[in-house]
Design a protein that fits this description.
There is one protein chain. With about 120 residues, this protein is of the alpha+beta class. The protein has one domain: Alpha-Beta Plaits (2-Layer Sandwich), CATH 3.30.70.100. It contains 3 helices and 5 strands; from the N terminus they run βαββαββα. The chain has a 5-stranded mixed beta sheet with strand order 4-1-3-2-5.
Length: about 120
Amino acid sequence: MAREIKLKIYGRVQGVNFRSMTKIFADSIDIKGMVTNREDGGVLIIAQGSEERLNILKNWVRKSPGLSRVDEIKESWQECRKKYNDFKVVKENNLLTDQRKAIKNLGRSVFKTSRFVFS
C-alpha cells in the first residue's frame, strides 16, 4: 500500500544539485513524487511509495548528499492526495529564474553559517 511523506529540508540545499540528486535516488528506489525549492531557502519533497522505501529516502536525505548540508528535516506522513506517475524536479518559471533563486538562497545559507574574523 502506497504512503505519502512530505519532507521540508533546511540547510545548504539550494544551488548544490540537491534536487537532481534526489530525483536520481528516488528513481533508483522506485519512489514517485516531486522535489522543489522553497522561498525560505529550503527544499520540499513530496514522495509516495512503501513506508520502507520512504524511510530509505528520508535517511538518505539526512546524510546530506553531495555538497548539501541538511540541518533540519520536518516530516509529515499523510494519505496520498495526488497520484504521481514518476518523480519530478519542479522548477520555478524558467531555468534562469530558478537557478538565480537557488544561488541567492545558497549565498544566504553560506553567510548565515559562516563566521568571519577580521584582524
